[in-house]
Amino acid sequence: MTGKENAQQMEKIVSLCKRRGFIFQSSEIYGGLNGVWDYGPLGVELKNNLKQYWWQVIVRDRDDVVGLDGAILTHPAVLKASGHVDTFTDPMVDCRTCKARLRADQLAEKNAVKQCPNCGGKDLTEARPFNLMFQTQMGASADPASIAYLRPETAQSIFVQFKNVLDVSRKKLPFGIAQIGKAFRNEINPRNFTFRSREFEQMELEYFCRPEQGMDLLAYWLKERIKFYEEIGISRKRLHILDVPEKERAFYSKGTFDIEYEFPFGRQELEGVAYRTDYDLQQHIKASGKPLDYFDEETKERFVPHVVEPSAGVDRTVLALICDAYDEDTAPDEKGKMETRVVMRFHPRMAPIKCAIFPLLRNKEALVAKAREVQALLRPHMNVFYDEGGAIGRRYRRQDEIGTPFGVTIDFETLGEKGEELRDTVTLRDRDSMKQERVTIKDLPQLISSKIR
Ligand code: ATP
Question: End-to-end distance of the chain based on CA atoms, in angstroms?
Answer without folding.
Answer: 34
